[in-house]
Amino acid sequence: MPQTDPILLHLLLYAVLNIFSFFTFADDKLKARNNSWRTSEKRLLIYAFVGPIGALAGMRFFRHKTQKITFKAVYLFLLLHIILIGYYLMPMLS
């Protein structure tokens, strides 16, 4: 069995989490339009915490939860991810 690069696995997982986050916001917007059972704000914020790029893209693309004060935290989640990714990659770049 070939050796899999751990960085590649982390990137793949990160991409999957962000894609899932994006589609969760899309699904909630669709449910809001149809007056259907919605995803809780708590759950949306959890998904935004683990996948802030997808959440922010979903918020902007679908114009969903953009006016809610609590969802301004998604920008902080993204900043935190940028800092953590930089910290994670720093030893490899030096």
Task: Please give a structural write-up.
- By secondary structure, the protein is an all-alpha fold.
- It has one domain (12-93).
- 74% of the residues lie in helices and 0% in strands.
- The chain has 4 helices and no strands.
- α2 (41-50) packs parallel to α4.
- It is elongated.
Protein topology:
Blueprint: H1 6-33, H2 41-50, H3 52-62, H4 73-93
Helix pairs in contact: 1-2, 1-3, 2-3, 2-4, 3-4
Short note summarizing the structure:
The chain is an all-alpha fold. It has helices at 6-33, 41-50, 52-62, 73-93.
Tell me about the largest β-sheet.
none
- The helix-strand sequence is HHHH
Secondary-structure content class: mainly alpha
- Counting DSSP H or I runs of 4 or more residues, the number of helices is 4
Give the number of domains: 1
Radius of gyration (Å): 15 Å
Instruction: Report the sheet-strand fraction.
Output: under 5%
Unreliable segments of 5+ consecutive residues: none
Helix coverage percent = over 70%
The number of E-state strands comes to 0
What is the mean pLDDT?
A: 94
- What's the overall geometry? elongated
